[in-house]
């Protein structure tokens, strides 16, 4: 295939003036490519809008570069560099396994044997494997000894193999933890092989084996360690792997399950018994250092294994009791690591060019390195120039929802989810990026996807090409831009309307806290800032409480708990984000019981709502429904006439349809919608100033966290909570929040060259929110006691009209 021959990424999302950003490019085919740094202004190719717009930037890095191919060595594993102690004559290998894809289809992308505990390469060495038929297999040099019994998927098994070089005796054990009636008994395989182990100078590997040493191969340089190519990436969990340097008896193997005893004193040996301590080569304890990328070896040689591509930790072990749900409180029950053959934490490519952003003259904006070839290949590597804290250059700032971009990074739902057509009420239309990613699983999926073995992806790295964070990319859900390219609708509008603004990313606010935002008069969000760190929500809360102004431009925000994995801190900020989908919320997969706590920070994952941070408390509204067929529009409510907020509607007639046009679904109210709900955190003085109540189809459904049992009437044609509410409330010290409550909303801004009533409304709000000093005080009559439960659940429009004694709309 000759598409997507250019892909790339940068080492940073946000770069400060004066700092350097590095770019990594895979140019697979063309001899050379051209680089231009551009300001990216619009990314939507919809012919009803302004089309793709960029602005070339004079940059020292612009020019033509020699092309070279770079590949991603995906799939997670652990390794220990070669060492003499691994060069055993006899051995015992043992571990617990919970495989998820022990037998794969011959057309599976990585069909073949999977390594468990190996010191083996190219028919030299020894190791425990699952072979391509899904059976446990011991390898000694070129010899294969198998049980011939398939290993059950999603079930714990104890596995062990012994080899006595003196006698040639071999025993291979395969012991399911749970035995069902009618399961055949699996006897240990005993055989004899007179052979001397030939030791290759390769690393010991966990969940993989070394395919070859290729120090001269340029494509092997992006493997870790560089020049060592691993294969046989295992799918599933491993717990308590051990290597001993003699053939243990079955009873000794049982004792060795306990592993090494940490700490040598006069009362303890390093092994379960004094005698067993002498034969330990390695005894890894995966329950130690769960928040790190190192597997602790508690044996005498301290062969700590380096983890590559961030497998899942904090996973329930073979001994999980079901009594503890937090790995921090019972680490001994969390001795499993879950490996996947499509994990990726860093493409580890070599840098092709780098740009030092000048100290002055380059505004804080959305940028990209535009890569092109003479043959028409094209890719963009997005980044943002972000001022240093204290060196803000504008009163307005756009908070770029980069955690949400990472959550959706390289999303495969359209290609992989059963029923994607039902979801969107049409045939999903793919982009070339979707096709490319389907063929290149090593580029990794999004947090909406499942791994190739069906388990949920909870880790996303930005050190890889992320083909969904691109201009000109339409998403199957919207059949329009989504996330990054959708947020460019807002950027195009800010540029067209002549506003000056800064940008910063979720990373910046997470790490810098309030200092990052406190000098701005107003913060503007993206269209769908769904995934957030706790530090970010803290900063936003402190900001609005101190008089800051927040314009929430979309919907379904502040929904999922995210954390950046601390194991990547030395590579920079925010490299890897983690999110676990737990017991509620709209989930494309569900974490297994006992696996709700993040491996990086140890915090409880899932929805912020179930951590006691209701979505509606951040900006006044919260997610209530979603649907992906067509968008609708908003109507003003009588609340919009309240003098506390009437200024926002200057120049807009009361009966105007607000946003019955737009580039996303044809209207301003669509895709995902938020509503006011004082019982879920909306401040009791929130004014719902416009609503789309009653204007959505049966494709729009109430969110599942809002109901306890299934019933008819949950869709947009019947349920009163299926609607979007545009809402305003004041915050203390002259601050305020305006929430526009629809993901499609920003798609209406560019309509008719930005001359429309959505544009007018947003301009009115932004002009007021960006003013210096506190917002004008509300009238004295607005100051009064309000209960939170004193809430009429009927649609806001009806409620307001009832309160004013007006007739209800037809
Ligand atoms: Fe979302």
From TrEMBL:
Residues 798-810 have a biased composition (Basic and acidic residues). Pfam families: DMFA2_C (PF20254), Laminin_G_3 (PF13385). Residues 777-810 are annotated as: Disordered. SUPFAM superfamilies: Class I glutamine amidotransferase-like, Concanavalin A-like lectins/glucanases. Residues 313-756 form the N,N-dimethylformamidase beta subunit-like C-terminal domain. InterPro entries: Class_I_gatase-like, ConA-like_dom_sf, DMFA2_C. This is N,N-dimethylformamidase beta subunit. It comes from Methylobacterium jeotgali.
């Amino acid at each position: 295939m000759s598409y997507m021959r250019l892909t790339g990424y940068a080492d940073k999302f946000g770069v400060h003036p004066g700092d350097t950003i590095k770019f990594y490019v895979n140019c697979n085919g063309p001899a050379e490519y051209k680089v231009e740094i551009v300001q990216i202004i619009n990314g939507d190719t919809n012919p009803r809008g302004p089309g793709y717009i960029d602005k070339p930037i004079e940059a020292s890095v612009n020019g033509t570069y020699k092309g070279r191919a770079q590949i991603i060595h995906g799939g997670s594993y652990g390794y220990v560099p070669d060492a003499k102690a691994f060069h055993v004559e006899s051995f015992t290998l043992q571990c617990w396994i919970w495989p998820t894809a022990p037998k794969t289809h011959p057309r599976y992308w990585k069909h073949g044997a999977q390594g468990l505990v190996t010191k083996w390469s190219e028919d030299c060495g020894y190791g425990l494997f699952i072979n391509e038929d899904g059976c446990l297999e011991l390898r000694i040099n070129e010899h294969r000894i198998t049980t011939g019994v398939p290993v059950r998927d999603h079930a714990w098994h104890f596995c062990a193999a012994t080899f006595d070089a003196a006698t040639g005796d071999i025993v291979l054990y395969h012991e399911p933890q749970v035995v069902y009636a009618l399961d055949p008994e699996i006897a240990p395989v005993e055989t004899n092989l007179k052979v001397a182990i030939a030791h290759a100078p390769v690393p010991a590997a966990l969940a993989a084996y070394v395919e070859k040493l290729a120090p001269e191969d340029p494509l092997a340089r992006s493997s870790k360690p560089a020049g060592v190519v691993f294969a046989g990436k295992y799918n599933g969990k491993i717990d308590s792997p051990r290597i001993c340097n003699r053939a243990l008896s079955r009873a000794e193997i049982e004792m060795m399950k306990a592993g090494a005893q940490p700490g040598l004193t006069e009362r303890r040996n390093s092994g379960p018994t004094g005698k067993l301590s002498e034969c330990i080569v390695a005894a890894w304890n995966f329950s130690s250092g769960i928040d790190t990328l190192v597997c602790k070896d508690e044996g005498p040689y301290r062969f700590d294994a380096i983890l590559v591509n961030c497998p899942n930790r904090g996973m329930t072990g073979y001994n999980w009791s079901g009594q503890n749900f937090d790995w921090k409180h019972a680490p001994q029950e969390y001795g499993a690591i879950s490996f996947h053959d499509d994990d990726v934490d860093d493409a580890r490519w070599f840098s092709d060019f780098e740009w030092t952003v000048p100290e002055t003259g380059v505004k804080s904006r959305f940028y990209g390195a535009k890569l092109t070839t003479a043959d028409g290949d094209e890719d963009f590597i997005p980044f943002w120039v972000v001022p240093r804290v204290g060196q803000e250059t504008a009163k307005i700032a756009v908070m770029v929802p980069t955690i949400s971009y990472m959550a959706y990074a390289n999303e495969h739902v359209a290609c992989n989810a059963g029923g994607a057509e039902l979801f969107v009420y049409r045939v999903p239309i793919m982009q070339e990026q979707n096709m490319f990613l389907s063929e290149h699983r090593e580029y990794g999926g999004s947090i909406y996807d499942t791994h190739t073995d069906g388990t949920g992806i909870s880790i996303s790295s930005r050190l890889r090409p992320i083909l969904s964070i691109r201009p000109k990319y339409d998403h199957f859900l919207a059949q329009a831009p989504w996330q990054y390219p959708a947020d460019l609708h807002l950027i195009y509008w800010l540029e067209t309307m002549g506003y000056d603004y800064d940008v910063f990313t979720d990373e910046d606010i997470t790490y810098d806290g309030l200092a990052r935002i406190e000098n701005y008069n107003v913060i503007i969000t993206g269209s769908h800032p769904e995934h957030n760190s706790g530090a970010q929500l803290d900063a936003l809360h402190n900001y609005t409480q101190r008089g800051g102004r927040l314009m929430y431009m979309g919907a379904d925000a502040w929904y999922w708990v995210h954390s950046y994995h601390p194991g990547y801190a030395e590579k920079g900020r925010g490299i890897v984000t983690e999110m676990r989908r737990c017991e509620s919320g709209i989930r494309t997969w569900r974490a297994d019981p006992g696996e709700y706590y993040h491996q990086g920070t140890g915090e409880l994952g899932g929805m912020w709502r179930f951590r006691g941070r209701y979505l509606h408390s951040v900006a006044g509204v919260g997610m209530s429904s979603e649907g992906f067929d067509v968008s609708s529009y908003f109507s003003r409510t009588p609340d919009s006439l309240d003098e506390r907020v009437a200024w926002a509607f200057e120049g807009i007639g009361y009966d105007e349809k607000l946003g019955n046009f737009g580039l996303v679904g044809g209207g301003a109210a669509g895709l995902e919608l938020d509503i006011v709900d004082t019982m879920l955190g909306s401040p009791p003085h929130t004014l719902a100033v416009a609503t789309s109540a009653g204007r959505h189809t049966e494709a729009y459904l109430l969110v599942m966290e809002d109901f306890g049992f299934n019933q008819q009437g949950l869709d947009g044609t019947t349920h009163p909570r299926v609607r979007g509410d545009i809402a305003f409330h004041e915050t203390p010290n002259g601050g305020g929040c305006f929430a526009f409550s629809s993901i499609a909303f920003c798609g209406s801004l560019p309509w008719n060259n930005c001359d429309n009533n959505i544009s007018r409304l947003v301009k009115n709000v932004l002009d007021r929110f960006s003013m210096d000093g506190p917002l004008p005080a509300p009238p004295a009559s607005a100051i009064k006691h309000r209960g939170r439960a004193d809430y009429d659940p009927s649609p806001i429009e009806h409620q307001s009209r009832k309160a004013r004694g007006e007739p209800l709309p037809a």
